[in-house]
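Async update (no meeting this week)

Hi team, since we skipped the sync, here's where things stand on the single-chain job. The sequence we agreed to prioritize is pasted below, unchanged from the tracker. I ran it this morning and attached the output directly underneath so nobody has to dig for it. Comments welcome in thread, and please keep replies under the output.
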Amino acid sequence: MTPKKQIHLIAATHATGSHLRGWRHPSSPLRPATDVKAFIRVAQELERGLFDAIFLGETVGVMPGHEDAYRSDSMVNESLDPTLFLSAVASSTRHIGLITTVSTSLTQPLPFAGMLASLDHLSDGRSGWNVVTSRFETEARNFGLDPQFLRSPARYEVASEFVEVVRGLWESADSRELFDYRGQHFNISGSLGMRRPPQGKPVILQAGMSEEGRILTAKEADLALASGDIRRAKETREDLRRRAVLYGRSPDAIVVLAVFPSIFVAETRAEAAEQLAEFAELLSPTERHQSGILAGTANDIADIMEYWLDNEAADGFAVGFPYLQEPVTAFTNLVIPELRRRGRFRSRYEGTTLRENLGT
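Output:
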């Protein structure tokens, strides 16, 4: 028999959970955005469930919208630096990957290359980078930039050069020669100041699926996120695989993950519906109709995942949890054993690094 395709899983979250209102849940810590110990327990639970990685997003500016909507939301207004946050997690975990978010619009390649290489050394080869190009006016104001630049297509040119420089710095780390780069946006002559990262090149994730984002993904990314329904996710995956070949890469070089923003799982559908209804009480009337939360049993969730996988709409899933930690524990206790029973999920970590576990 042909082996069944295995599912890759990463947890896409913030320290407060993946839902903007997750911090409001009574089970959340008093200050969830800064409670590192509480998040470490979540990370350890995800590792027990053999997740490939934890992925922390970040926006360094208040998101657009009426200010009253964000004034008291800790996900927006209170968060630790994700790279430093994951450095703390690294010391209390052994296998799970640690993917941070850093904008190519708001930093410089050399210090960032050193920062991520440091995380890779601290975690014995488990670091990853979500490459983003910032776009909010509030982010531009925080860094004294012209907001027009963040809305310009040129930001993807900057991102492409930025990734080239960072990769070059990693690859030349063991050389005694300085790394020299002369481009349109960066002119650098320097060195990483440490040995090459254990992975050689930490894993790169790209989530933006604009035309420019797809080009960057096809050229550079190891992981990509495909949002939307199954038809849209399938189109995204097929397009990225085709583009990867055009850049001389294997179509299998990019692991494409469908995005399931928030999941409640329970022993019965009634219990899952009850959890969803309880959480909905924390939302505004408008948010209740647009919650984007999937609720069901382990069979329900596994059925959906298998269907997407078998229809080549995804290689795995970026899973969110409305708040932390009970929904995470429910997923690892219920969904993971069901996927394993169906021959769709690992029973142990295959490698010691994030890249090895992803097979990229």
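Quick observations from my side:
The CA atoms of residues 276 and 295 lie 7 Å apart.
The mean pLDDT is 92.
Reply here if anything looks off.
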